[in-house]
Design a protein that fits this description.
single chain, alpha/beta, TIM Barrel, nine-stranded mixed beta sheet, four-stranded antiparallel beta sheet, 28% helix, globular
Length: 364
């Protein structure tokens, strides 16, 4: 619903075309920014007019665009004439006749490998895709991927799940964009629930977008730190299949810039020090070569770089506690006599020759 906050722009940073798509538009409706990709905005009509939409400058326009136009033909001609374009993103909510025009023409271009259909229909009007003929039309191109847009776990309805499964069964992968929005999904709990819900319906989380500085969307925008906080709570804490890339879409047409927590802690000529999701710091030697750094007595991260230590492990690590429990349990089992009455462990309490005892772990 509209909010009075949409009238506020205290920073003066909100823009009509914050990504400068129109400046990268060689023909009306087409944006060619990345070398091998092109975006085709084919209609002003949407199944839902998002208050945070980057392209509301187009969707707020009324009239025209329902029939195939000369500009539609120009977009296809541009793609056909530029063999470097491999991936075409078609933003649409179209009548079948116009959809068929774009699918048939784009699919016939040999250098186009992927046609991405960007649509919120599976989320906001899934019943439209109950039409098997429409599913068949989308699948007929043979190059179609669906790019949809769930923002909250409550949007994952049985109806949405049904049409996502139908698209998958027809051979079209389904990826998801999410926009990070204050008061909507700017909590780790909500985002985890959303990503797990998407995996359950076999929709791959693809991007979390930082909300663009478009006019009227300022009250939705969070800090970048909020996005990084959420990513910190996703990576390692759930399946990698459910980890999207957090991106800022840069002003001045700079494109998507990925952001993530810092996992590279330090580096030397021999090795790097990396951090995992638990806070564990590990020395990682990427190349198979003799060490060139002369070992020096030192502590902490410096000791990892010098090679005198291989890891710094936080206290109270649940994973290490499980390891210790497993060692103790296995030791108890090894004390049990076999059928001949013999014990299977050696005098050091090890199960195999050369095995080492578990060393107590302390934070450093």
């Amino acid at each position: 619903m509209p909010s009075p906050l949409e009238q506020q722009n205290p920073s003066g940073y909100e823009l009509e075309d914050p990504l400068e798509e129109d400046k990268d538009s060689p023909v009306p409706g087409l944006t060619h920014r990345y070398p091998d990709r092109a975006l085709l905005v084919t209609t002003h009509v949407c199944t839902m007019y998002c208050r945070f939409c980057t392209r509301k400058r187009a969707t707020m326009v009324r009239g025209g665009w329902d029939a195939i136009s000369r500009n539609d033909e120009r977009m296809v001609e541009y793609v056909r004439d530029h063999s470097e374009i491999r991936d075409v993103i078609v933003s649409l909510t179209l009548p079948a006749s116009k959809l068929k025009f774009f699918l048939d023409n784009l699919a016939s271009i040999p250098h186009v490998d992927v046609i991405r259909i960007g649509t919120r229909v599976p989320v906001t009007l899934p019943q439209k895709l109950y039409d098997e003929n429409l599913i068949d039309l989308l699948a007929s191109a043979g190059k179609v991927w669906i790019q949809t847009h769930f923002n909250h776990p409550r949007e994952i309805t049985p109806e949405a799940a049904r049409v996502c499964l139908a698209l998958l069964k027809a051979g079209m992968p389904v990826n998801n964009h999410t926009v990070l929005m204050k008061g909507v999904n700017d909590s780790l709990e909500t985002m985890r629930s959303l990503m797990r819900g998407l995996l359950r319906i076999k929709v791959r989380p693809y991007y979390i977008f930082h909300c663009d500085p478009v006019i009227g969307a300022g009250h939705f925008r969070t800090s970048v730190w909020k996005g990084l906080e959420i990513m910190e709570g996703l990576r390692g804490h759930m399946s990698g299949l459910g980890i999207p890339t957090y991106v800022v879409d840069s002003p001045h047409g700079g494109g998507k810039i990925p952001l993530m927590p810092n996992y590279l802690v330090s580096a030397s000529d021999d090795a790097v020090v990396l951090r995992n999701y638990e806070g564990m710091l590990v020395r990682y030697q990427a190349e198979d070569k003799p060490q060139v750094v002369q070992p020096t007595r030192t502590r902490g991260v410096s000791a990892l770089l010098q090679g005198s230590k291989s890891a710094l492990i936080p206290q109270h690590s649940e994973r290490m506690a499980r390891r210790e429990l497993n060692v103790l349990t296995n030791a108890e089992l090894s004390d049990l006599p076999d059928t001949n009455g013999h014990h299977e462990h050696n005098g050091n309490g090890c199960h195999e020759e050369g095995a080492q005892e578990l060393v107590p772990l302390r934070g450093m």
